[in-house]
Amino acid sequence: MKSCALFKILVLVCLLFWANISVEASLISGEKILLANFGKVTATETVAQKLTLPYTIKLEKGCGLTVLGETPGLINQVSGKSIAWERVKLLFLGKAWNISSYKALEVSTVIEAREMLLMVQCLFEASDRPGNYEGMITLQPWREVQNGMRENLKPVKILVKFEISPWIKLSNEVVTVNINEVASDGLSLKRGMPLSLKIASNAKWAVSLALDKNSNSILKAVPFNVKTVSTNNSFQEFSQVFRDNNLEAKKIAIGMPTVNAERYWCEIPLYFMIESYLKYPAGKVDFQFHCVGELFDN
């Protein structure tokens, strides 16, 4: 029993040691690599997140620090698209320092000797496309020697990583419809104005409608037509027929990511019609459709 307990303790110590090494830093070719892993991020709006790194910058008077983004930005490992370094800042000395891949940041050399806790801040936006992103920052400490020359000290690198998760939002979960006009053919019924459903997403999406079962019991066997129309080719249009014997959700629109610098929502006009007033129940009937948004892979 004692040997078994001792073995468990040794395994736990080894795991803790390994976790500490992987989180804090590793040595590759004599360079220290710090990992700033923000994990999975779902940003339906602009949001800033901060990470405190297990590392302290030690600078003495007469020393300085050069900071540079090694990669062109934070690169999506599949698509190759990037997020600009301008959205990443290093926080120390009571300041937020901008990162750049084309202009090195020079921290003042006249600071007094002190130790500084290092933090990384990243700004995430709703328009960021899903995927895994990585980028490397180099911190090059140096000190002044004679004749204004610099002596470089051991560099430190920061690997910034995160995964942007796909997301989808609908303006409505339910739409209530009432038929209030006779169409020009004198037989079919329609809703005079289309209803508007809005969707926002950072990925390819699909929207479906499902007739509410309570509405369906009222409508009996009335076939109900729903059509979507895209005025600016912002999504794929559909025309569907809903019946009382089929309550399955049916797709009414498929589109690409909606969020960019100019807009957030994509508006989907919904047109409703019943082919013949002879099949419509007497009196005023309001009925409901449930709206379902989903990420679309194909």
Give a written overview of the molecule.
- By secondary structure, the protein is mostly beta strands.
- The protein has two domains: 32-164, Immunoglobulin-like, CATH 2.60.40; 168-295, Jelly Rolls.
- The protein has two helices and 25 strands.
- It has helices at residues 2-24, 213-219, and strands at 26-28, 31-41, 47-59, 63-69, 74-76, 82-83, 88-92, 95-98, 105-107, 114-124, 131-144, 150-152, 156-164, 168-170, 174-178, 181-182, 189-190, 195-201, 205-211, 224-228, 236-237, 239-242, 250-255, 266-274, 286-295.
- The strands form four sheets. Strands 1, 2, 4, 5, 6, 9, 11, 12 and 13 form a nine-stranded mixed β-sheet that branches.
- It is rod-shaped.
- It starts with a helix and ends with a strand.
Summary of the model, kept short:
This protein is mainly beta. It is built from two helices and 25 strands.
CATH topology of the largest domain, what is it called?
Answer: Immunoglobulin-like
The percent range for helix content is 10-25%
How many whole angstroms does the radius of gyration measure?
Answer: 30 Å
Number of domains: 2
Secondary structure: elements and pairs:
Elements: H1 2-24, E1 26-28, E2 31-41, E3 47-59, E4 63-69, E5 74-76, E6 82-83, E7 88-92, E8 95-98, E9 105-107, E10 114-124, E11 131-144, E12 150-152, E13 156-164, E14 168-170, E15 174-178, E16 181-182, E17 189-190, E18 195-201, E19 205-211, H2 213-219, E20 224-228, E21 236-237, E22 239-242, E23 250-255, E24 266-274, E25 286-295
Parallel strand pairs: 2-13
Antiparallel strand pairs: 1-2, 3-10, 4-9, 4-11, 5-6, 5-11, 7-8, 7-10, 11-12, 11-13, 14-18, 15-25, 16-17, 17-24, 18-24, 19-23, 19-25, 20-22, 20-24, 21-23
